[in-house]
Amino acid sequence: LFGYKSNKVSGFFEPIGHSKEDQLLLPKGFTYDVVAAYGDKINEAGDTFGFNNDFTVFFPIEGSNNHGLLWVNHEYSSDLFVHGAPAGADGKYTAEQIKKSLYNQGGSIIELKRGEDGKWAMDTKSKYARRVTGLTMMKLVGQAAGSNAVGSAVQVQGTFANCSGGMTLWNTLLTCEENFEETAELAGLNPTHYGWVVEVDPFDSSFEIRKHTSLGRFNHENTAMGLSKDGRVVVYMGDDKKDACVYKFVSKEKYIREMGRANTNLLYDGTLYAADMKKGKWIALTIEAVQKALADEKFKVPSLIKAKKEDLLAKFQTQADVVVNTHEAALILGATPTDRPEDIEICPFDNTFFVAHTNNDNHGNIHGHITRFFEKDSDLGALEFDFEIFAAGGRQSGFSAPDNLTFDSAGNLWTVTDMSSSSMNKGVFTSFGNNGMFVIPTTGPNMGQAMQFASAPLDAELTGPWFTPDETTLFLAVQHPGENTTDLAKPTSMWPHRPGDTMPRPAVVAITGFQF
Ligand code: FEO
Ligand code: CA
Ligand code: CA
Ligand code: CA
Predict the structure, then answer these.
(1) How many structural domains are present in the chain?
(2) Residue 311 Cα to ligand 3 middle (Å)
(3) Per the record, which residues fall in region Disordered (predicted)?
């Protein structure tokens, strides 16, 4: 039995084993309710829940742990399930298909209630429930807004490829545009309008949705927000690509709690840093530094950049060019390429932060690892750090490809895995079974030991774990069940096995059973 204890909840769970069942499996005593699945009506206007749910974040209504809004990311659209056919096989989509693909990405705001019977359900009469999609107009703010680097744009169309995200200190959410390239291309949209961190207020549709360009443009996985010792806002971010860097943004001004949502302005102006893991230093990504490096006679273009020095000199003219081309700027300045940095979380106890380096087959890191960073003097605003490999994927730990992370208040790190549906249950991935969710204590005698808490249905990954503040409910998104299906008449999964369904559906569940 594995014990968990926090100031609110304590209990035990019996870790489960690996599975190849087409079920969402949980330890004894835990159950789940499906609260929303692809295509479900979410409000009276008839908006529907998007495809491939990922990040979730719960906003209590009037402080309740049984009633609130849930924001859910929709990462990508699968042609077979969304269009009913492998559209685009000839490289062409109809205008209607493009519209549908864009509609089914972005995010959903849904209202959830836990009934007297203890079950969670969606309230489709909600006055808050709405969609934010690849068709919604929003604005660019910060260092690149209106610049040549984004085609002078201030208003842009939509958000898509929304992978993970984070909550702000002022009760809004940040949703992250990750693998945006394909959708931008097929929809004929300007790629510099995507790859940003996007802020939404779930309670207020009059709050203009904004893309925070000062946080850089790359394959954004997530945000993890905290405060430096001197009170500035710090945001840690992963760039989910092979050989990509770990970033943090530090605001210029200080956070003022009483200012509430007006603190959004802190994300407009500040310094973006990338991690140099050899020197243990945060490198400031400024136009002055990039131009100086490029002008240096001895400067050699890093092998990961496929451009000539003259082209780079022409490309980097202003700070807007730096934030729009963040990955290149970071490599030019000597930041360390890493093994697909996915989610990042700040430990609630000691200000260390954890990065899921999911894997990188370019150099044999097949099962990935979780890295723990120690900022100097435990100050999130520090310019120096140290790190260790906290837990490594593989047969011994029992997990492969860590992706999303979340903490409970006892200091346990919860991680979900993302072995790709094409490699799952094959070759060196055979022993892991389906993707799962694991609990790893970050202190105490079981530190670093992974215990399995959930096993995903076939072809699926578990994403976006998020606890209610009292930790009695854990929201979890089940993404891409049955993704290997090639014939709709023979789906490889039928999860969530709802009566009447004829295909698998990505869905969000509410897990309960945590004991007081
Ligand atoms: Fe969309 Fe990085 O996982
Ligand atoms: Ca992810
Ligand atoms: Ca997270
Ligand atoms: Ca992933």
Answers:
(1) 1
(2) 37
(3) 485-504
